[in-house]
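pasting for ref
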Amino acid sequence: MWLRWLHRLERWVIYYTIRLFRIRSTTEHIARGFAIGLIVNFFPTFGLGMLISGFLAKAIGGSAIAGLVGGAALAFAWPVLFYLNLRTGSIFRQPSIVVEDFDDVTPKVMDTLMWGKTFTLGAILNSLLVGLAAYVTVLLLYHRIRPPVLAYFRRHARVHQCRFRQWKRRPVRV
């Protein structure tokens, strides 16, 4: 069961990576979309983060595809981002409930803290820092790494297609 889930996750990551590197647009357009997509992950979106990131990226003038990829990039790390937001916000403002470790985060504590000023301040600061870092990184590296990444995925696709064709040719045992 978990092996099938791992295979689906691998295919999903490969698919969205290929989509990101096949975008034919300016680097600035792609960097803006990807950074906006990452920023959305720092706020509670209740499962709609990927969609919101695509729409928000397009509304701000970035690539919607890059926004979707950016939104998907950190979607799995929401508990870590939540904790990071609380820790960053608590540097500037003390929370009403103290959270020392991951084990301290219960649904009741999460509800209380999620809408608090500490969490919001941490989310704003973290999203600005991560968004700016992602924007600059993609802006500087996208056109340098795009050709080798696409060449790698072309080779990967050929090997995968050969394996798939060999698998289909096997006789069926009854």
